[in-house]
Amino acid sequence: MSRVAKFAWGLLAYNLLVIAWGAYVRASGSGAGCGAHWPLCNGEVLPRAPGVEMLVELSHRITSGLALVGGLALAIAAHRSQPRGSLVRRGAWTAFGFVCAEALIGAALVLFELVAHDKSMKRGLSMALHLTNTFFLLAALALTAFWASGGSRVSLRRQGALPWVFGVAIAGMLLLGASGAVTALGDTLFPVHTLSEGLAADLSHGAHLFVRLRVLHPVIATAVAALVLAASTFARILRPSPQVRSLARSVSMLVLAQMVAGVVNVTLLAPVPMQLVHLLLADAVWIALVLLTASALRAPDPSEAKNASLVAPTAVPS
C-alpha cells in the first residue's frame, strides 16, 4: 500500500472522530461556547478562563482545522505522486473541497447563531445540509483511499440495472442522513423523560416539526435499510468477486447493527453516547456502501477482456 493510500485511510478515520466530536458539541449544547465569533473564540485566539462549553467548542474547531490541513496535505501529496488525470488526484482535491465546505457551513452556523438552543427551521435545514456535505466528504475520502490502494475506475456502461439499484440506495441514504440529523436535533432541543411522553409529543398536532419527524425517521430508516440490503444482495449475486462479496457482507452486517442501535437509541430516549454510536454506524454504512458500489461497478480491465477472448471457444466447422 502506497503512502498516499495509508494517509487517505488514516485521514478518513480521523474525520470520523471529528464528526463524532462535532455531534457531541451539538448534543451537549456547546455550539455557542465561543459566542458568535469565528474563527476566533469570543474574539480571542486563546481565551482566558474558558468554561466547559467553550473548551468543547474550541477543541472541535481545533480538530476541524487539523482535518482541513490534512485534506490539503492529502491533495498535495496525491498531486505530486500521481500522474495527470489520475483518479487519486481528482478524489483528493474533491475531498479537500468538501472539507472547505464543511468549515464554511460550521462557520455559518456560528456566525448566524444557529447553535445551542436555536429552534428555527433555518437550523434544521442547515443541519441536513451539514450532514449531506459530511457524507460527500466521507465518500470522497473513501474513494481516494480505494483508488490509491489499487481500486479500479467506476464504469456505468454495460452494467445492466445495477447502477440504478445502487443509485436508489445511495439517494435513500442521503435522505435518511438528512432526516436523522434533524431528528437528532429534535432529541437535543425537545428531550423527554419517558417513552410514553415522547410518543405523545411525537403524535401531537401542535408539536414542533423537529419533534414530529421523530416518528417519520424510523419509517424512512426501515425503507432505506431494505433498499441497501437489496443492493448488497444484487451485487453479491451479479458480481461474485471476493472483494464484492466481502463488502456486501460488511454492508449487510452494518445495516443490521444500525437498526439495532436505532431501536436502543429510541428505547433509551436518545442518550448522548448512544447518539454518537448511531451516527458512527450511519457513517460506516455509508462508507461501506460507497466502496461496494465502486467495487461492483468497476470498469472491466482491458487485459481481462483480452484474456477472455483468447480462451473463448471457437466454432469448429463441421
Automatic annotation (TrEMBL):
The keyword Cell membrane applies. Keywords: Cell membrane, Disulfide bond, Heme biosynthesis, Iron, Membrane, Metal-binding, Oxidoreductase, Transmembrane, Transmembrane helix. The keyword Methyltransferase does not apply. The chain crosses the membrane at residues 7-24, 62-79, 91-115, 127-149, 161-185, 215-238, 250-270, 276-297. Pfam families: COX15-CtaA. It is a multi-pass membrane protein. It is found in: Membrane. This is COX15/CtaA family protein.
